User: What shape does this take?
Amino acid sequence: MSIESFVARILRFLSIPLFLVALFLTYQNLPDRVAVHYTPSGQADGYLGRDSVFYIAGSIMLIFNILFGFLSRSILTLPDAAVGVFGTFRWRNNPEALRLSLIAWLGLGAAALHVFLVFCLNALSELNDSQSAETVFDYRWLLQLGLALLLVWFLYLPLRLFLTKPRVVEES
Assistant: This one.
């Protein structure tokens, strides 16, 4: 197992319990009627039930994990020629290393999603806390964080494939 695969697997599996803890803590702290939409002036104008927020956040996490898991398993079954489409010339000669990099990339994407959802749940909890002085404008950085995580994730694989050489994967 490459260091990339190991790190991706650890980050993914550590981010799952982090998300679950954040989800349950957020659920406990939310009021029955949760403000989820705000006017340009910062006033809440859209609400959901606490249970709906719980199920929506859990569903997003579950659906993306199923999707990433399905894609990872699909990559394992692709013929070498099909896997080579994703890589540069250097990587096409080593389809097993390319497979491992693709699967690690998907694992990193899942971990990034979990972390982003944790920040979103925290913001939702703070915005709906009656004792908190924070406003929706205090969380403008959250959109930038999401875009940054998405951009880093999208660019990681092409940069990895263009700037590095594959390690020879030994068959066991």
